[in-house]
Amino acid sequence: MCQLLGMNCNVPTDICFSFTGFQRRGGATDVHADGWGIAFFEGRGVRLFLDPLPSATSPIAELVRHYPIRSLNVIAHIRKATQGVVTLENTHPFQRELWGRYWVYAHNGNLPQFQPQLDGSFVPVGNTDSERIFCWLLQSLRARFGDEPPSRAVLFSTLHELTLPLAQMGIFNYLLSNGEWLIAHSSTELSYLIRRAPFNIAHLKDEDVMVDFSQVTSPDDRVAVIATVPLTDNEPWVRMRPGSLWLFDQGLVADYCETAPSPVKSLCGG
């Protein structure tokens, strides 16, 4: 399976420290060697770096690791292919335009039986289930709301509604952002961490690197980091309950929904 990394902040922040550990999992400390990608939102624009090479040996990944791009929302992905050949067009994250904004999506899982009917408004370029799901999600949102985007609360509730049936079909961990917020769905394995004052020293699990965040932040900074497997070994990561959808905004949890185990019902709260 693949691994995901996301970041949501209240001030533009670079992801160099977290990406240093994440990069190593793409063929060095783990087996996710079938390509990698990372997307940085900057205003209404997106810097998107993709490479079908393993991130641990990718020259582009080395550039990103040493390039302090500051962003409010970042989504990264390292791939262990389950569907689709190892090629650039099958490399996450995927990007599309909806309602005058870029949307970025990355998926960890496998839903081979999900074969939605697409109407042509969003069409996969590659042959992964992940890109097909992304196109279907955006198609469903446009069909529901037309040319006018809904409020954030209505959008989150709708994404929860769209996610639930797919979550019953298999493994469906994903990250989604339009640059204003970041949504994370935990199907099997996803954790998050909120870094805020008082800041401490953080140490990576995959490489012997540490940072004293008290020396590189201001007291009002907040950073939410989301990862398939925690990236540091000395910070209070929170395991996201399988079957839960989370919305991060300004470096905090802004909303969430769960599916209760029995009876099956939706539980949402801000």
Descriptive report:
With 270 residues, this protein is of the alpha+beta class. The chain has a single domain (3-269), classed as Aminohydrolase, N-terminal nucleophile (Ntn) domain (Glutamine Phosphoribosylpyrophosphate, subunit 1, domain 1), CATH 3.60.20.10. Helix content is 18%, strand content 36%. It has a 7-stranded antiparallel sheet, covered by helices on one side. The two termini are 31 Å apart. Mean pLDDT is 92; it is low at 260-266.
Q: Architecture, according to CATH?
A: 4-Layer Sandwich
The largest sheet has its strands arranged as: 3-2-4-1-12-9-13
Summarize the biggest pleated sheet.
7 strands, antiparallel
Measured as a percent range, the helix fraction is: 10-25%
State the name of the first-level CATH class.
Answer: Alpha Beta
Topology, element by element:
Blueprint: E1 3-13, H1 16-24, E2 36-42, E3 45-51, H2 59-65, E4 71-78, E5 94-98, E6 101-110, H3 129-145, H4 152-167, E7 171-177, E8 182-186, E9 191-196, E10 201-203, E11 210-212, E12 222-227, E13 238-239, E14 244-249, E15 252-259, E16 266-269
Antiparallel strand pairs: 1-4, 1-12, 2-3, 2-4, 5-6, 6-7, 7-8, 8-14, 9-12, 9-13, 10-11, 14-15, 15-16
In brief:
This protein has 270 residues and is an alpha+beta fold. It has helices spanning 16-24, 59-65, 129-145, 152-167, and strands spanning 3-13, 36-42, 45-51, 71-78, 94-98, 101-110, 171-177, 182-186, 191-196, 201-203, 210-212, 222-227, 238-239, 244-249, 252-259, 266-269.
